[in-house]
Predict the 3D structure of the following.
Amino acid sequence: MNMKIAVTGASGHIGNVVCRQLIEEGFKVNALYNKDQRSLENLNINLFQGSVLHKSDLERLIDGVDVVIHCAAIISIDGDPQGIVFKTNTEGPKNILDVSIQKGVKKIIHISSVHAVTEIPHSIPYDECRPYKQLGASAYDYSKAQGEQILLNGSKNNAIEVMIVRPSCVIGPYDFKPSKMGSALLDFYNEKVPFIPEGGYNLVDIRDVASSIVNAIEHGKDGEIYLLSGKYVNFKKLSETIQKVTGKKTPPLTLPYWLMKGILPVVALHAKITKRAPSFTKESIETIRNGHPNMNHTKARAILNHNPRPLEETLHNFFDWQIENEVISSSCSLKP
């Protein structure tokens, strides 16, 4: 494979697994990371330290590449008081587009999010045609909606192709940091979760998402959007599946939405006193409350061969990887 691919946000969960998939399929890879490169150690790639907010960094990264996979983003479930979420998630795509056009890149694959568009109403299946979220939505959601539109609109009168993929909540191995959902799974494993929140989420294996992203290099169509979802699971069922996989106890109590919303001021005060991130926020409980139970990835299955594996397999692999990398102890054997 002679094509060279640039990956931004390469040290993140999606980014590092995309890099691994690219290497496996024989692509040459330029990888942009910001600070922590642990997830990229010992990979046969060209490393570039920098930021998507600096065009000079992108010019070095993108020089001589055929395709850019833009994974870099800031995720927030607690607003955007410094403005860095919106800045990164909108100026980043604009800079990627400008430099890619300048360097003669053929294609940009932009990693967006299912949260860029509206989840309501639940009575209609969730697919690629949902309307974008508007100003007034959470900072992260609105920034991802704007980022998509910047790329799709900005590429219309240029030779470059742009396509969008929207993963749901990714979980699985190679979660070095770990991610927000990875942290939640580890809290379940370590029995630090006193209750189960009401609601649910669509979960998808990171490796299936990465495979579909790489397939978009050849099969993705200009101007198209692809939903990379997995399976919806409510948190009670998720907790029971974790217990089945690990033997860890399921929290006995389910906390309803109205009660979680009512104690938000107490949670925020505790976070301020302890100087730790709040265990949940208004945005996070709204997200799991509004999680759409019927996300339809038929289009991605047909075009990108998106074929999500069973949740139980993903959880096995996630906890196995965490044990192998000594993030958690193996005091409790995983169930076969």
